[in-house]
Input
Amino acid sequence: MVASRARMRVSAVAAALLAVILSWGAGSDVAAHAAEPKDCVLLVPGLAMSVLRMNNATSNTTHRVWVEMRSADTNTSVGVDFKNLYGWFDPLNQYFSPYQANVTVFAPPDEQGLLAVRNLVPSARGVERHLTKYMEDLIEDLEARGYVAGKTLFAFPYDWRQSNRLHVRAFEETLRAAARATGSFRPVTLISHSMGNMVVKSFLAEHFVTFDEYVGKWISVAPPNEGAGGNLFREVLQGFNDLDLLIKNREAHGLGADMPAIYELLPRVNFNFSGINVPAVDAIVDGVNYHFTPSNFSTLFERALRGFTVTIDGQVRRKEFSWPLWLHAIGTRDRWHRAHLPHRLGFRFYVLYGTGVSTPWGLSFKKPVADWDGLRTAGFRFSYVDGDGTVPAFSALHDGYFFSDHAHRFPMHKLTHYDLIRHRKALDTILCLLEHSTHVPCTL
Output
């Protein structure tokens, strides 16, 4: 009899545990999730992951400038659409200003911002659609669980070229509107990916009280808290655009050489790299060996970009190193470092980060060059650390909240930077964290 009762108790516990697991799994009944959620969700995309449009006040026209699935120009001049993304950092207003008069670049707010982050080429089909889709699957999963655009589901697309600090006011307006969209207050769950996490951190650093009041949960995916290393060095020195699928590296270089967001994502100068390989760029220039680290990257970039220009509409534009931009970026990273999370009972902070993928961290040029401008075309090799292929694992983990009892982290083995917001395993974890008040069911 005792043994029978014990077996019954074990069976009851097992059944309850199984019910918890099945309640959020990929095979769960969508109808069970269709009830109106008690919170609302705000999606925050990463670098280059918002559709951008251009408005020309002179011609009174608006069209998409990022991104188009097209063959990029092979000339040194940039294409007719992409040129509208080029600009210069104005130190007076800390704004990346366009070269063209009466031109404004913006992320479209259509569908409460969701259109700009579903798929970067909304009209794409077949293989192209798979290449350019971003938060599409996540949005569909949320809609299947009862989240409704404009009521309980929102996105914050933004002009990702600009300094992350520039988005703080607009983010606050979106956050407040989302929380009260249904007429009554609902806590907001933030789901941010890549540089979107740094947009959130910029807001947190300046508006802690508002963050504490409105945000109930923050699911941080692939955050580059302490920089992203190798690919960013390549972007500044030569241009980089993920296998040239959308534009040529030459075109990307004309944008990235002086784009505020790129410089803000570089490794922090005063970070303690104890136990971690210091990110470095090695080169031999005019017979001299040089070893650059975060403390003197500014010297490398100033020398390598000296004399760098692009041609737009027949006009030569200088794209050289900017000291005001460099100092602005250092200030941004210091603000992120000082940001801290609420200790309010009930607040939850979760991180999904990638492991098991070789991630570029340092860069060394293979052959000597005669002059510094030779680095803009010279061959190179990366050194690697563990991560998601873009963000090192240690960078994602150094969020400053490691000892908070409100935080929990989920390693995602062999998932790349974009898999972390698109792969079924990652999406199921995100949905689980969204639906439960604790991380425990999501670790089983």
